[in-house]
Specification:
By secondary structure, the protein is of the alpha+beta class. It is built from 11 helices and 13 strands. The chain has a domain of about 240 residues. Helix content is about 35%, strand content about 25%. The strands form 4 sheets. The chain has a 5-stranded antiparallel beta sheet with strand order 1-9-8-5-6, with helices on one face. It is flat, with a radius of gyration of 25 Å.
């Protein structure tokens, strides 16, 4: 590990940069594109797979699907749609999946090579297995690529490249592809990497809480806070959904959390209430602890957490009520793809950075998926709102309203939801507690 990290552990409290003692809270009604080029490749590939899954199931509504798959989730969602909306979705989906293979690959990437019925049969989680692998440059992830050493005299150079006749392969190299795979895996398991390059790409990571035991008594008393809570204070209807003359809105909130290890968990739908008209609101006193994380999990700091809020108008019957299940399954896919890309070499060093990359990639995929569905199928969905919090230490604190440091709670923040011709806001804050 870089020496700068071990020195940071030894700094007295009064010399620690104050920005390192504050959690960072961010939120967005959209989702920024993943920073790293190779993570972007993975995210875009998964997005194309989930889009093709949606369109293929819609175009083949009666085809058998495997249990507990993304295809089953889509199929059950379509069954809950009203007849007019379902017909519109099926017509558009059939046009997309019936296009020529060349056009399908433009729309759905490498998955467009498969016929829609074949894709449904294989499933979103397995479709990549029969296709050419995604090309990922490990150097751009901070990993040194392995080199296979061939003794002199074994091969000869030709205009087409290095030629190694089978008769000249050294003992144990009869299966050349297996030898390359073995060499790559051993290099990954050896944890050979450039620590400075990794920090440039992923940011600094600490194997222990860098601010624990800093030496100040008043600081030590606050170090017991090992949970991070997400609290909701109010849900307000700024503008009722259309058609307003039809009746008042019934509102529910569902969600997904992503923890410091990149694990996604579904937060079940919670009924907020009915009777929402313009200006109506529901206040929570005491404030509603919507979700919480244990900061005792995970071995590295800083720790990144996300909560995705999905607002559902209960009369809609669209995809909004299923999005948290869809998010969870996409999260599993992204985590698997990133783990495969880094082949174990990064997991011992940038665990929280990878977790942050997973959360960012999944948020971007779901945001783009929702936008694609709204544009292509004219479905009424509230765009997902994502709240994030990065905690550098058990001792991390925000500032109080008077500007002094030491508050265990963040400021009250606002999530905006626009959709169905309506506008809702949800007020929330983060809280560190024991």
């Amino acid at each position: 590990m870089p020496t700068s990290i071990t020195r940071l552990d030894r700094l007295p409290l009064d010399r620690l940069p104050i920005e390192l003692l504050r959690p960072t809270a961010t939120d967005t009604s959209g989702a920024p594109e993943p920073d790293n080029s190779e993570i972007r490749k993975i995210a875009n590939d998964v997005l194309q797979a989930v889009q093709y899954s949606f369109a293929s199931v819609a175009a083949n509504p009666n085809q058998a699907v495997r249990a507990d798959t993304l295809e089953e989730t889509f199929q059950q969602t379509f069954k809950r749609m009203d007849a007019a909306k379902l017909e519109r979705v099926q017509t558009k989906a059939t046009q997309l999946v019936s296009a020529a293979p060349e056009l399908r690959t433009t729309l759905f990437g490498r998955y467009g090579q498969l016929e829609s019925k074949e894709f449904v049969s294989i499933g979103f989680d397995r479709a990549h297995e029969g296709l050419a692998p995604l090309a990922i440059d490990q150097k751009l992830l901070g990993i040194r690529t392995s080199h296979l050493s061939i003794p002199q005299g074994v091969g000869r150079m030709t205009p087409e490249g290095l030629l190694i006749p089978a008769a000249n392969l050294p003992q144990g190299f009869e299966d050349f592809e297996d030898a390359i795979d073995m060499s790559t895996q051993r290099a990954a398991e050896s944890h050979v990497y450039n620590a400075e390059k990794l920090q440039e790409i992923w940011g600094p990571v600490y194997s222990t809480d860098p601010f624990a035991g800093a030496g100040a008594d008043e600081f030590e008393e606050q170090a017991v806070t090992d949970k991070l809570g997400f609290y909701v204070t109010r849900v307000k209807c700024v503008d009722e959904t259309n058609p307003e003359f039809w009746g008042s809105d019934e509102i529910a909130i569902a969600g997904v959390s992503v923890d410091e290890d990149g694990d996604s968990k579904k937060i079940s739908e919670h009924y907020v209430g009915g009777g929402f008209d313009d200006g109506d609101e529901k206040n929570y006193s005491p404030n509603w602890n919507y979700h919480w994380f244990s900061m005792q999990e995970g071995n590295y700091w800083p720790k990144a957490y996300k909560v995705a809020l999905m607002l559902a108008e209960k009369d809609n019957g669209g995809l909004s009520t299923a999005l948290n299940t869809i998010w969870e399954k996409i999260g599993e896919k992204v985590k698997e793809a990133i783990a495969k890309a880094v082949t174990g070499a990064l997991s011992g060093y940038v665990g929280p950075a990878i977790a942050a990359a997973i959360g960012q990639a999944v948020a971007w995929i779901v945001d783009k998926l929702v936008g694609w569905i709204i544009t292509a199928f004219q479905d009424d969905i509230f765009p997902v709102f994502t709240a994030s919090c990065t905690v550098p230490s058990f001792n991390a604190r925000w500032n109080y309203p008077n500007g002094t440091w030491g508050s265990p709670t963040s400021d009250v923040r606002t999530a905006h939801f626009y959709g169905h011709g309506g506008h809702y806001i949800v007020n929330y804050y983060w809280k560190l507690y024991a």
